[in-house]
Amino acid sequence: MVTKNSIEFDPFIERKAFDETKVGVKGLVDAKITEVPRIFHVPKDSSTDKKPSVSVSDLEIPTIDLASVHVDTASREAVVEKVRYAAEKWGFFQVVNHGIPLNVLKEIEDEGRRFHEEDPEFKKRYFSRDFNKNKFVYNSNFDLYSSSPSVNWRDAFSCYMAPDPPSPEDLPVTCRDAMIEYSKHVMSLGGLLFELLSEALGLESDILKSMDCLKTMLLICNYYPPCPQPDLTLGISKHSDNSFLTLLLQDNVGGLQILHQDSWVDVSPLPGALVINIGDFLQLITNNKFVSVEHRVLVNREETRISIASFFSSSALPNSRVYGPLKELVSEENPPKYRDITLTEYTMGYFEKGLDGTSHLSNFRI
């Protein structure tokens, strides 16, 4: 039976109308709305509301100092042990003394913000949902037309910076230089992190790089403007990452939370630090030794939040390579927990499902 309310509110029509403005959530804020549109409302019975939040004073994700990693064998082994603990018990950690200069971090943050706060007509030139046609893609909610129950309070621009970096002309002049410079440093740091993670598995340091884990890097700059009703929506719904590894630069606003021991734990900003987290593909190939942990982002009423996420994953790009649990990590006592997959197969389902609060990785368990 069709009710009056169902006629009044068609989520698809309202999502499409929002999409066709091409101005994203920032456009709603610029229009000085005082109420959050219904498509952004998190369902009242959502599991995201039921987990208690824990302040950072009670529980903190590990912070790892990389300054001594090249000093001597003993110092490197001490760092590897900390990486192992963090990857197994938390799935998240922060790194300091990571080698990326502070001015490079500040420039990518500032220029990312500058793009999102550009004139709407300028941003519309880059509006797209198709990586096959555009190197640089700007939109709001990659999963807008998926089965996710609500739209997130977030705009973003995305670009694959490796293995085939865009030409400078493909990038907006607003953020071009910062994206290119920051990505060089991220690729270098990513190489070191995959070495440390390989060693934390008790394997040769180049094992993960030899599996092309470092080959492809997608850079996404997320923009979360102030929200008039922050309790009704989320910046990003609960999800785990469609990647091997994610490196995140977050500004000083805060809002990122991870699900640890059935509680939401704040990942408080640490000046100059980067947040590192294990993605679904690394959990799969390590046969659950490393954990890909669910996380979310809260929004607030007063401040804009900026974050730059670098995903080591081919995601939407064609990739025929097959991945499964590493043979070195399985045995009769510890058999494979996942079937072999391609990243393309995984990603198609991940995008179709959207950030609906459920694990996509569980669909591939044996």
From TrEMBL:
PROSITE patterns hit by this protein: FE2OG_OXY
Keywords for this protein: Iron, Metal-binding, Oxidoreductase
Obligatory cofactor(s): Fe cation
InterPro entries in UniProt: DIOX_N, IPNS-like_FE2OG_OXY, IPNS-like_sf, Oxoglu/Fe-dep_dioxygenase_dom
Superkingdom of this protein's organism: Eukaryota
SUPFAM superfamilies for the chain: Clavaminate synthase-like
GO MF terms, alphabetically ordered: dioxygenase activity; metal ion binding
Pfam families in the cross-refs: 2OG-FeII_Oxy, DIOX_N
Residue ranges constituting the Fe2OG dioxygenase domain according to the UniProt record: 215-314
Family: Belongs to the iron/ascorbate-dependent oxidoreductase family.
Protein name in UniProt: Fe2OG dioxygenase domain-containing protein
Natural source organism: Eutrema salsugineum (Saltwater cress)
